[in-house]
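ok so for the tutorial part 2 we go from a plain amino acid sequence to predicted structure tokens. step 1 is just haveing the sequence, like this:
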Amino acid sequence: MTPFVKMQGIGNDFVFLDVIQNPKMPADLAEFARHICDRRFGVGSDGLILLENGDAAPFRMRMFNPDGRESEMCGNGIRCFAKLVRDHGHSMENQISVETGAGILHLQIAENGDVEVNMGQAKLSFAAIGISGTGKRFVDEPLGVELNGTDLFGTAISMGNPHLVIFTDDLAAVPLAEIGPILEHHPQFVNRTNVHFVEVVDRGHLKMRTWERGAGATLACGTGACSVGVAGFLNGHSDRLTQIDLPGGRLQIDYREDETVFMTGPAVTVFRGVWPD
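step 2 — the prediction. this is what the tokens look like for a chain of 277 residues:
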């Protein structure tokens, strides 16, 4: 039997395995992720996350998408990770450092339970994002894809994982299930990409919808919201500090002058259970 904890951050939900507390893990984590993340035959989630002891930091987070592929990072997941560290008594400090595939991130737990994450610097180079070709930045670039007869332009950013941000005047009208997979597998993104459509409410308020790489349409994406905040500023649509509404709730994104991104939002435990071996 494998104990797990189901958690969510503004509707982006995850199955957690605390490997520190229960060192025995499934032999094939990719296959385990595919089974336990399945919403009809498993627990159902947007990803499987492991809480482990770190080498370069006290803790390490590993994440597997529902398709079994390991991902570099997850913004909503890491906020839940901080809550689980506290709930399981691994640390009672308000500040927690976590080793991830995107480097070491530093988290601050507020009195109300919200978690602020220093997500590190947004990366804009082709090499860092995983874009083929040459160029300094991919900002408001043509994608060679049409939607309802209109050419799409996008801005690409890495927050440890790749993101493509597209601004639109009518977010509700975007056929996400149709266009999302096309853009996820855009040939210029060598490792596929997360896709976000964004509508500007005002300079301090954006709305977004997400097609997540390896997961499909999700209620929230923390690293995606960070990328949207950065893209909003780079394209002149928003200020550095923005409130971003996702289908599952709201995140605050602060894109500072040194290009470091801070994300603040909630983390909630849904239930605990055991998975039969």
